[in-house]
Amino acid sequence: MGSERRKFVRASRALLPRAPGAPSAPTALSSRAMVTSLLLWGLVSTAQATGNATTGAALFDRCAICHSASKGGPNKLGPNLFGIVGRKAGTYPGFSYSAALKKAGFAWTPAKLDAWLMSPQKLVPGNNMPFAGMPDAGQRADIVAYLATLK
């Protein structure tokens, strides 16, 4: 369990009413209280998943080594990512994609971009992108939010 989640669970437990003398262990929580805590945690996680485009723009500097992101910008080691949200995978003009990515058969949605950033080889085995992936869900969400602004 991540440290943010532990803090959240501790704080939510502190807010729950307890009978006098009841232990503060998780077993003392009612099913309803536990469900409420989990639902609130889900809302916090969902809010984080939307991402911050400004933060994503700063994080994109790592990507800019291989990708341009300006309208009409050049392909580099990777394709130009301007307008990527909604584009069919493996189709940007003038870029030499792997056979695997050409055959991927999907459009780049925020969910697909997130999966790609998490693990390109898992999403499209056999692609040529030399990137192991980004484990931090918040950073991925921020980059995806930034990419979504490139229209």
Task: Write up what this structure looks like.
With 151 residues, the chain is mainly alpha-helical. It folds into two domains: 3-49, no CATH class; 53-148, Cytochrome c-like domain (Cytochrome Bc1 Complex, Chain D, domain 2, Orthogonal Bundle), CATH 1.10.760.10. It is built from seven helices and no strands. It has helices at 3-15, 31-49, 53-59, 99-102, 110-118, 120-123, 137-148. α1 (3-15) packs across α2 (31-49), α3 (53-59) crosses α7 (137-148) and α5 (110-118) crosses α7 (137-148). The longest helix has 19 residues, at 31-49. It is globular. Mean pLDDT is 81; it is low at 14-18, 25-29 and 33-48.
Using brief descriptors, characterize the structure shown.
single chain; globular; 151 residues; Cytochrome Bc1 Complex, Chain D, domain 2; mainly alpha; 2 domains
> What do we call the CATH homologous superfamily of the largest domain?
Cytochrome c-like domain
Instruction: Give the ordered list of helices and strands.
Output: HHHHHHH
> What's the helical proportion of residues?
40-55%
Number of alpha- plus pi-helical segments:
7
Spans of at least 5 consecutive residues whose pLDDT stays below 50 are 14-18, 25-29, 33-48
User: What is the level-2 CATH architecture name of the largest domain?
Assistant: Orthogonal Bundle
Number of domains: 2
Largest sheet descriptor: none
Q: Supply the helix-strand structural class.
A: mainly alpha
